[in-house]
Amino acid sequence: MAIQAHVLVVDDEVLAAMALQNVLQRRGFRVSVAGDGQQALEIWNRDPADAVVTDLKMPRMTGDELAVRLRTLAPHLPLIVASGYLSETVEQRLRHDVDDPIEIFTKPINLAGVLRALSTMLARERPDH
Predict the structure, then answer these.
(1) N or C: which end of the chain has fewer CB within 10 A?
(2) Is the alpha carbon torsion for 68, 16, 116, 113 positive or negative?
(3) Is residue 63 part of a domain?
(4) CA-CA-CA-CA torsion sign (99, 25, 48, 111)
(5) Element (H or E) spanning 22, and its range?
(6) Half-sphere exposure of residue 60, counting CA atoms within 13 Å on the CB side?
(7) Which residues form the Response regulatory domain (predicted)?
(8) Contact between residue 105 and residue 114 where contact means Cβ atoms under 8 Å apart
(9) CATH of residue 61
């Protein structure tokens, strides 16, 4: 049996997180869910993920703050950001290095697009793996 890729879903909107979790699990991913960036880091420290899908606007720690912290732990971690509050400044900050695998989606999230992006990103050979 193939090893399942572990995806960490981070969103303070419970229904959005559950919908994404259900879709990913049906596609064979192992999924952990966090309600904010701080909880995501706690989960990461116990069980690092192969990819992260995060909202931007959350309590305690925003998605862009989480992205910066995760990049220090795993520089080439596939990262998908989904938000209804995107700006050019936020996108530029998130895309600080063109080699970093990142996809940015606006909400409401396109689940098929996220699945395609995850599959593509996880199929790439990463230097830190």
Answers:
(1) N
(2) negative
(3) yes
(4) positive
(5) helix 14-26
(6) 13
(7) 6-122
(8) yes
(9) 3.40.50.2300
Dist CA 78 CA 76 (whole Å): 6
Note the pLDDT tens digit of each residue in 10-60. Answer: 999 999 899 999 999 999 999 999 999 999 999 999 999 999 999 988 888
HSE-CB for 67 with a 13 A CA cutoff:
27
**3-state class (DSSP) for residue 126:** coil
Give one word for 94, left, alpha or beta, with left for phi > 0 and alpha for psi -120 to 50: alpha
Range of the domain at 110: 6-123
Is 76 strand, coil or helix? coil
Sheet bearing 6-10, strands edge to edge? 30-34, 6-10, 51-55, 79-83, 102-106
Supply the pTM of this predicted model: 0.86
54 forms beta bridges with 10, 81
What tokens were used for 99?
A: 């080699």
Residue closest to 78 by CA, chosen among 115, 106, 35: 115
Count of structural domains, the chain: 1
- The string over 107-128, giving b where at least 16 C-beta atoms fall within 10 Å of a residue's C-beta and e elsewhere, is bebeeeebbebbeebeeeeeee
